[in-house]
Amino acid sequence: MLSQANDFYQESEYIYSILENLSNNDFRKVTQFKSWTFNTIIRHLHVWNYASYLSLEGEDNWKKFREKLNFFFSKNKTLKDFEEDIVLPHIKDKELLMLWKEFYLKLTETFKFEEPKKRVKWVGPDMSVLSSISARHMETWAHGQAIFDILGIERINHDRIYNIVIIGNNTFNWAFKINNKKIPSEPPYLKLYSPSGKVWEFNNSNNINKIEGNAEEFCQVVTQVRNIKDVNLKLIGPISNEWMQIAQCFAGKASKPPMPGLRKVMLNK
User: Fold this and answer.
1) Domain range spanning residue 223?
2) What are 235's strand-pairing partners?
3) Is the same domain home to 170 and 198?
4) 103-139 in b/e burial notation, b at 16+ Cβ within 10 A?
5) pTM exceeds cut of 0.85
6) What pLDDT, in 10s, does the model give residues 148-197?
7) Total domains in the fold of the chain
8) Are 111 and 8 in contact (CB under 8 A)?
9) Is 117 found in the same domain as 55?
10) What are φ and ψ of residue 120, in 5° steps?
11) What is the DSSP code (8-state) at residue 219?
């Protein structure tokens, strides 16, 4: 069984447990992420869970989905417009929440038994099944942070964020490439402390460029839910500093991280 599928499921369930007792009006709350509401976030997660499922079904179904996406963009429509076409705007609040839950359960069960190395299509480069479900975990974790923040809830993380750390480290070259910067010869040495207190180390320990700190904060920076100035990662060397300014572990064009102080837990809400 693919353990990353269970990690995705556990992350989705954690967010669901936060949302299930809210009122319908709460789903209209505006977050610190691009003024998206809870409805916008859940619809977004659902649509791309659906897309990852289509990628497993084969190239024909994925091609139809991608052609529809390209058509929307050719008409100067936004990603939100596309997602509201897939999941109609009138499906919202608790109804949307249940739609998302039912499908992430289906996605989990489907991915569990797939061959990890099987290649599947995506908006960016093709990827393995293992990378695909890990990416769904990463995006669920990242977008979920906006919900925790606006509700004033300090998130309890678990060692399953190891999947996100791996994606963050593996996209070192990607971050420089999409920002039209020269790719350094090697990534900095990472020494990160997991939520349970384990030490996770990556890359060449003799590198003069080093990053040390909590794994959760590294994940926050590479997913752009926090500015590097709002976390306590220890950065040594110019490449470490440059990377953490532009880190981006998700597909698409280069995206700027939030301004310092913009994303935070609203403890007084």
Assistant:
1) 162-246
2) 211
3) yes
4) bbeebbebbbebeeeeebbbeeeebebbbbbbbbbbb
5) yes
6) 999 999 999 999 999 999 999 999 999 999 999 999 999 999 999 999 99
7) 2
8) yes
9) yes
10) -135, 155
11) H
Kindly state the tokens that stand for 153. 């809830």
Structure tokens at 54: 């289509």
Locus of tokens 């904060």: 217
For residue 51, give every residue at least 6 positions away whose Cβ sits within 8 Å of its Cβ, in sequence order, or none. Answer: 62, 65, 123
3-state secondary structure of 52: helix
CA dist 151 and 140 (Å) reads 17
267: pLDDT strictly greater than 80: no
pLDDT digits (tens, 9 = 90+) for 114-137: 999 999 999 878 999 999 999 999
**Listed residues 128, 156, 184: the one ending a domain:** 156
Residues pairing with 236 in the sheet = 210
CB 148 within 8 A of CB 171: no
Q: Which of 116, 135, 156 is the last residue of a domain?
A: 156
CA-nearest of 131, 124, 133 to 174 is: 124
Q: Reduced to 3 states, what is the DSSP secondary structure of residue 220?
A: helix
User: Distance between CA atoms of 55 and 62, rounded to whole angstroms?
Assistant: 5
Q: State the residue for tokens 């869970």.
A: 49
